[in-house]
Amino acid sequence: VVVTRSRGSVAAEMTPGGPELILQPRIVAKIFQVACPAPLDEPGMMEQVSELLEQKVQADLEAALERAGGLGADIFGFGLALYRSDPKAFIQLAPRWGEEWPLLPVRIKVSATVISSGSITHPARVHHEGE
Fold this sequence. Notes:
alpha/beta; 4 helices; 131 residues
């Protein structure tokens, strides 16, 4: 799988239980049949590949959150997102943000789309004179 485009957003929402952090990556990818033995031209196969890619990205982000939380590093910019959505709530948490943000719930919504297989399913025939 080759990621051709990726974008994402980081947000924070205030809920009755406190702030909730939101990560929403959007990925567009291509897959090449050379590296994949599955029949990519079957109906529904690209959707299955997209779902697998979403699961992989989700797992990678969860691992990155765990690691960053252990270090107290807000690598995704959740503090800025919270400040933008509710400055008063962030100002209260700011002095101990490094210890607080890893305890907050994070919702991850991955959207992955495989736009084409990149493989040629019907190769052109070349005819030579005399054949």
